[in-house]
Amino acid sequence: MCGIFGTINYEYPIENSMIFNGLLHRGPDEQGHYSLYNVNLYHTRLAIQDLSVTGQQPMEHNGLVIVFNGEIYNHMELREKYGLKASSNSDTLTILMMFELMGMDMLEEFDGMFAFALYDTLNFRMYLARDRAGKKPLYVYNKAKTFVFSSELNVLYKKCRPEIDYSSLADYLYVGHHYRKATPYLFVNELENGHYLKIDTLTGLCDDVCWFKIEDYYKAERYPDYTDAVTQLDGILKTAVKRRIDSSDLDVGSFLSGGIDSGLVTAMAAEQTSKLKTFTVKVPGSFDESALAEKVAKKYGTDHTVVEIDFSDLTNDIEKIISNHGEPNSDNSAIPSYYVAREAKKHITVVLNGDGADELFGGYRRYVPFKHVDFFNPSQFTRISSRILTSLLPVANQKQSNYTYIYRLLKFGGYSDLVKIYCSASSDLFVGFEDAFLEKPKMKVISSDLARINDYSISPLKKLLLMDFDSMLFSRLLTKMDIATMAHSLEGRSPFLAKEVLEFAPGLPDNFKIKKLQTKDILRTLGKKYLPAELIEQPKRGFEIPLKKWVDHELKEIINTYLMAPDNLYSKIIKKDFIMDLIARKIKISDERRAKILFCVFSLEVWHKNL
């Protein structure tokens, strides 16, 4: 795990210390710089694999130079498969040798998380690439023939000072995150997952190549025997976990909640190593999963730590937590993620997690209705009856209650616009309050993607899972976890995002994932082999954050200070009166949704103030 930065045709001087200091938390162990012609490459290293000097970067090999962030978990398998020999066991060197052998077709062979810049000095080509899911970030500033790229937006902004993109910020407020390539800046894009850029460093011409599309696997539905599918999934996950343990020269730990995903990862990891450290979060006032997690820890004899988070420093830390992202971030679970990563780093440098399981296997309750009803193409009767019932029913205020579930179901059942349907079913922020915007959200890319996906001959559930993989997982959840872990120089590894899992899970029939009202059925069945019975029927909870309480108490003063400031940014995009009425509770809206909107706008202001 590392930080990378680079420039092509950038005419302004760069102080190495500015780059290295800005990315030091991503790579505190070593820093390196390479310069040739009009290209500069920078690297900060967190040494995890091949700890000797042979793993240092930028790495050169036969006219190729690379700065690499991430891990290729199967790289030694690939060396054996293709007869590649070297004295160093560095996965970075494996990338260079594989490129010599097959060029960028090598990406299809990799099981890993990665963002890298590979410079072919003989042919004057730069390749910027990301992994299938987009676990490792890469942002690219491109204006005319100039390119600047970075693992983090904060460092890129300090160097290039791009202008703010107000249209993009309007879309952020509506969706709750920057969708796909979008960032808060003009001329700055996020390189998408499963893509690489091929840049001619002489002419500045650039091609954006999509090398992996998960939608291809959703469209290729298979009909395996259920028992065989469980057995196959068992083997795939075991291999994924083993690779993520074996490809570390440091001890590997595991985040362990009381749920199935992290429980399966932990159980399989414990079978691979006798010194597994596990970590569970305990938050006062929320559902306590630590007792369930402890049952798994005892069953597998792990070195278990319960991380108790009381958020006593929240008011002092909140601006730093948000600012770490380099862009507005409405996901309030970034707060406990930050704290648990900080505590885990005291014990470990590499940690496994269950990221991706819910989006691939149908882990959220909102997937259940899409299994049974096509909400992407609702009938007129469905829309009209849903609107009438929603207008008559009291606003739902209990986050985990069945009434809230039904109320939200009726809400997005009342829309015909695909963007409203999707946003209502996911982030649920400004849908229904479009009149509050001064700068209307354009939503061009997400609208186009939704329309394209809705035309596919796949089920409504698959459409929602596909959108969530490309939107919620890529643009929000993986970003959140990367920032939280790397803020503390901690590497997070996700077996559920392994190459073989991403090729296996999308094609499974819907009833392998949602069975009647039960979520992720196939994982629950597999869990019976490994986990205590009490865990199997547990609903998906995630971090149960007392956001309503924070907005009205602990964070009330700082939120009001930002939102009521005369020079705020949001009032250029949405009506300030709307936010003031929201604060004063003059708008008919649930307490939870009110808190989410206020936090979303607050995050925008914190990001802007700390530029």
From TrEMBL:
What CDD domains does the entry give?
A: Asn_synthase_B_C (cd01991), AsnB (cd00712)
Q: What is its EC number?
A: 6.3.5.4
Catalyzed chemical reaction(s) = L-aspartate + L-glutamine + ATP + H2O = L-asparagine + L-glutamate + AMP + diphosphate + H(+)
Record pathway: Amino-acid biosynthesis; L-asparagine biosynthesis; L-asparagine from L-aspartate (L-Gln route): step 1/1
Q: Which InterPro entries has this protein been placed in? A: Asn_synth_AEB, Asn_synthase, ASN_synthetase/amidase, AsnB_N, GATase_2_dom, Ntn_hydrolases_N, Rossmann-like_a/b/a_fold
MF terms (GO), sorted A to Z: asparagine synthase (glutamine-hydrolyzing) activity
Enzyme category, top tier: ligase
Record key words, sorted: ATP-binding, Glutamine amidotransferase, Ligase, Nucleotide-binding
Q: Where is the Glutamine amidotransferase type-2 domain?
A: 2-202
List the Pfam families hit by this protein, alphabetically. Answer: Asn_synthase (PF00733), GATase_7 (PF13537)
Family that this chain belongs to: Belongs to the asparagine synthetase family.
Identify this protein by name.
Answer: asparagine synthase (glutamine-hydrolyzing)
Source organism per entry reads: Pedobacter panaciterrae
* Gene from which the chain derives: asnB
